[in-house]
Amino acid sequence: MNFRYLILIILVLVSISCSNNKSQDNSSKDVGLKVSSDTLLTIYDVEKDSILIGSARAIALGTEGDIYVLDNKSNKVFRFDSIGAFKMQYIYNSGRGPGEITKPNSLFVDKNSYLYLTDRDKRKFFVFNKRGELFAEKKIDLMPSKISAFDTSKVFITGFRFTFQDSNIVQTYELKNSEYRKQGSFGIRTPVENELMVNMSGYSDFIDVVEKRIILNRFYPYHFEVYDETLTLIHQERKEHSQFTAPFREDGLINFKSVGREILILKDWVLVRYLIEGKSYFDFYNKDFELIRTNSAEELGMKGGGKYFASYSKKNQVLVIYEDPLFNVMRYGFEKNN
User: 10 Å Cβ neighbour count for 127?
Assistant: First the structure.
């Protein structure tokens, strides 16, 4: 009997020790977070009392809180105010002539409210001023997937890997004498297992800018890099997640359908969002790119089924597009608990 009591006491002590260690690990990463959400907003035209968006392809937030949406059905860009009321549509013709756009697939809005738009089929990017007028267009030598910029003076583009022309994955363009010229590229392509299948998968890397720093989020193998305005690498990190099983094999085949990720720049954090088997997870980094916490969307109280995400670097807010069945947007706020 005494021996049984001794074993029981040892097991209790071990359990308490493990519980304490686990608590310490969680508290070291958790700075406390208060999550809020606005009422679901439906993008609409106030005057016509009608919904404008059929199916979104991309979303961006402007410095004034305006919402920019690329409609996948009409291939048009619409601009709304912060509560979803229609403000303007960017006017351009569909086609292959100068100033015409065939298949827009990504957009970005800079601090001066200039809109940057890529055309996947024409392999071009376009820049519009805040009045919606075409400012510039440029032919490029890859199929673009994501565009970002400091401002009109310097533009960064990454694309689908099977269309790359050199050993780097980000191209840089500078505005000189009212014309964009390619200035080089950066972000060395690293050889990976089953590279042909990776390159042909249709997935691509993400790029964004914050305070004159460029963040490159590589989709495979999963890691991100930070460059300063001189394009010098100042930080890189590869974080292994238990949800990832590189190279994402399923029944002996590589499956990328369950994997996706993007960068969200907030006031206090840089969020790296990734999708595993239909569920969203978020890594919270501070502005020194130190990992603070990791949470699933469910743990954050976020509604599932979000299609596209956008953020505004002056606020701790994330906008999420839903299509269930009507196009609508929900705004989430993330604030520190003091």
Answer: 21
What integer is the mean pLDDT of 313-328? Answer: 79
Rg (CA), the chain: 22
How far is Cα 253 from Cα 198, in angstroms, rounded to an integer?
A: 12
DSSP 7-38: HHHHHHHHHHHHHHHHHHHHHHH---EEEEEP
DSSP string, 202-234: S-B-EEEEETTEEEEEETTTTEEEEE-TT--EE
The side-by-side arrangement of strands in the sheet containing 134-139 is 104-109, 115-119, 124-128, 134-139
Across the beta sheet with 67-71, the strand order is: 56-61, 67-71, 77-80, 86-89
Q: Tell me if 214 sits within 8 A of 156, measured CB to CB.
A: yes
Mean pLDDT calculated for residue range 24-31: 35
CA dihedral of residues 324, 325, 328, 334 (deg, nearest 10) = 0
Q: What is the dihedral of CA 208, 257, 165, 235, to 10 degrees?
A: 40
Which pTM value belongs to this model?
A: 0.79
pLDDT of 80-132, one tens digit each?
Answer: 888 778 888 887 888 878 888 989 989 999 989 999 999 999 999 999 999 99
Contacts of 322 (CB under 8 A, 6+ apart): 40, 303, 305, 306, 307, 328, 329, 330
* DSSP state at residue 162: G
Q: Can you tell me which residue has the tokens 């460029």?
A: 214
Higher pLDDT pick, 13 / 100 = 100
> SS3 breakdown of the chain: % helix, strand, coil, rounded to 5?
10, 50, 40
> Residue 237: helix, strand or coil by DSSP?
strand
Q: What is the pLDDT of residues 126-184, one digit of tens each?
A: 999 999 999 999 999 889 989 999 999 999 998 887 777 778 889 999 999 889 999 99
Give pLDDT, residue 49. 60
Token reading at 89: 């549509």
Quote the tokens at residue 106.
Answer: 């990504």
